TrEMBL record:
Keyword Cell cycle: no
Cofactor(s) the record lists: NAD(+)
Reaction(s) the record says it catalyses: UDP-alpha-D-glucose = UDP-alpha-D-galactose
Gene name of this polypeptide: galE
NCBIfam families, sorted: galE (TIGR01179)
Pathway as given in its UniProt record: Carbohydrate metabolism; galactose metabolism
PANTHER family referenced in this protein's UniProt entry, alphabetically: UDP-ARABINOSE 4-EPIMERASE 1 (PTHR43725:SF53), UDP-GLUCOSE 4-EPIMERASE (PTHR43725)
Protein name, as recorded: UDP-glucose 4-epimerase
Record carries keyword NAD: yes
GO BP terms, alphabetized: galactose catabolic process via UDP-galactose, Leloir pathway
Entry EC number(s): 5.1.3.2
Domain of life (superkingdom): Bacteria
Keywords: Carbohydrate metabolism, Isomerase, NAD
């Protein structure tokens, strides 16, 4: 297929692009490089530097005879979205509405969309399946839920088929070492640990050690980016073949605590990784784990690389050459 990947220069998008290229598809990346990196682009793909807020540029880019588009371009700071909602409403909602309208205008009828487990909010039960109530605790999660609603309407009104992929915590780097771009100013746990391990920051702040979890620190479902990438290809295949839209979780179905991850990172890196226990971060649930049964059933998809050792060793493989390690 001929595929347009919007946000394909980013952390997850570059892994998704790599997977589609590996499967023999033709890939064009559209990205404004606001957080994406030229370093994450591959020689086999075409690159268009453009912004999703620029509707005419989007329409122009989409005239490339594409069979499908994958949309990953967004701001992703859950905390930041609570203090700068205008930034998130514009880029994540308006920008995506531009993409959906431009797709309808240019006749692209298959869309794979990056959603998030943040649409669920505080869990009512675990593991979280797709029937779990959606009550986002932050505005970022709301922007993704809002887009899922619009996609449902465009399915009915414009015949656009979509796969909305609710990722849990994306982590790790390409198991073959082909992607080495570091995220700028990361706030997510694993890159923060990696930065501390290689001397780019003094310590890791552990946000709370008094949760009702085995070691008192927060538990999350970490899903390796190569697994996410395979999930995108499988989801596109499904909607293109079945002409049916889907909303599915992509998670490892395993809970890992903050301290378990820090201990593994200490072992793998051989670095001390100083830790400071601070207060809880507002809005953080104690524990989140996914049910990925639906992805298994519909897509034949299952996490293959999301064990703790692979998550940390592939990340360390990239970070160990950085900073003062
Ligand atoms: N990282 C996670 O744990 C996680 C979890 C759930 C969902 N997601 C979603 O996955 C997607 C990708 O996340 P990521 O972790 O790779 O982040 P990222 O910041 O590395 O990637 C986002 C990409 O989109 C581009 N972009 C942003 N705004 C743009 C605009 N206006 N025009 C054109 N390009 C633009 C950026 O330059 C970047 O390349 C996002 O939609 C995010 O909300 C991420
Ligand atoms: O410096 C840090 C960063 C995080 N944490 C803890 O580590 C765990 C993971 O936190 P992240 O910030 O890495 O990720 P979140 O679970 O908060 O959220 C991530 O995954 C969600 C889906 O599950 C959403 O997609 C969201 O946008 C994405 O950032 C949490 O218990 C958090 O309290 C720390 O202790 N110290």
């Amino acid at each position: 297929m001929n595929i347009l990947i919007i946000g394909g220069a980013g952390y997850i998008g570059s892994h998704v692009a790599r997977e589609f290229l590996d499967q023999g598809h033709t890939v064009t990346v559209y990205d404004n490089l606001s957080s994406g990196l030229e370093q994450n682009l591959f020689p086999e793909e075409k690159f268009i530097k453009g912004d999703i807020m620029d509707y005419p540029a989007l329409v122009q880019a989409m005239k490339g005879g594409f069979d499908a588009l994958v949309h990953l371009a967004a701001f992703k700071g859950a905390g930041e979205s609570m203090v700068k909602p205008e930034k998130y409403s514009l880029n994540n909602i308006n920008g995506t509405v531009n993409i959906i309208n431009a797709a309808a205008e240019t006749g692209i009828s298959n869309i794979v969309f990056s959603s998030t487990a943040a649409v669920y909010g505080e869990p009512v039960y675990l593991p979280i399946d797709e029937k779990h109530p959606t009550n986002p605790e932050n505005y970022y999660g709301f922007t993704k839920l809002e887009i899922e609603g619009t996609l449902r309407w465009y399915d009915k009104l414009k015949g656009i088929k979509f796969a909305s992929l609710r990722y849990f915590n994306a982590a790790g780097y390409d198991v073959k070492g082909r992607i080495t771009g570091l995220e700028r100013n990361p706030a997510n746990l694993i890159p923060v640990i990696m930065e501390a391990a290689c001397g780019m920051r003094p310590e890791v702040q552990v946000f709370g050690s008094d949760y009702d979890t085995p070691d008192g620190t927060g538990v999350r479902d970490y899903i390796h980016v190569n697994d996410l990438a395979v999930g995108h290809a499988a989801a596109l295949d499904y909607i293109a073949k079945n002409g049916k839209s889907i909303i599915v979780n992509l998670g490892s179905e395993t809970g890992l605590s903050v301290m378990e991850i820090i201990e593994a990172a200490r072992k793998i890196s051989g670095k001390p990784i100083p830790v400071k226990i601070t207060g809880r971060r507002p809005g953080d649930p104690a524990k989140l784990t996914a049910s990925s049964q639906l992805a298994r059933e519909l897509l034949g998809w299952k996490a293959q690389h999301s064990d703790l050792d692979t998550l940390i060793s592939t990340s360390w493989g990239v970070y160990k050459n950085q900073g003062k390690a």
